[in-house]
Design a protein that fits this description.
239 residues, binds D-xylitol-5-phosphate, 35% helix, binds zinc ion, single chain, alpha/beta, 17% strand, globular
Amino acid sequence: MGAEPRVRLPYCGVTALIKIAPSILSADFARLGEMVREAEAGGADYIHVDVMDGHFVPNITIGPLVAGAVRQVTTLPMDVHLMIEAPERYLEAFARAGASILTVHVETCPHLHRTVEQIRELGVKPGVTLNPATSLDTLFEILPYVDQVLVMTVNPGFGGQSYIPTMTAKVARLASMIAARAPHVEIEVDGGIDTDTVRAVVRAGARVLVAGTAVFHHAEGIAAGIAALRLAAQQTLSI
Ligand code: DX5
Ligand code: ZN
């Protein structure tokens, strides 16, 4: 008898570290359910939902109704990114729609601690995010209270923009801040993430990778887009 076939699990030690969060902003909205199911089957870890109000950002996108419809077609955690003014008005609606993580912008929350506590009281994980030009100092006091920090690597409002290169150093500085102050917090990045830029952000400390264009517009389909990002991230961590 030959030797037992060995089950090979490439990079299994680091697989769990990286989460891929496809942003449905780049999906075909006429076939949204189908595309979310395809992302789940293709190995997505979260479904990222971009909520925009036409005030805080120049675009208008999704409300609780569509988020609730997404909830019906997937069991994955729904990662809801609120790019809206006075987000506290809509926390309950998105919690009821099935959000697993609710992320608010520090620029929209004068009472950030209260808003974060409200999210937790709703049974949802709180995240905070900041625009590219907003200083990491705005996070110092809130870090121990959140589960995730999202570093915007483009100016929020649209999919398909180019990664802002100086954000790599920002992610690295945040990673040091988190290690010293709140090691449970995960770093997420959002905007212009593809198989090239993913290497720099992962090396800097990002572990949750939002990608719209690189997943939903991948030439070989959604699963191939997710696999390519995961491979690039895993290779970076294995070096
Ligand atoms: C931008 C959104 C992103 C966007 C990412 O305001 O928050 O989630 O959809 O899209 P890509 O990956 O195409 O930059
Ligand atoms: Zn987003």
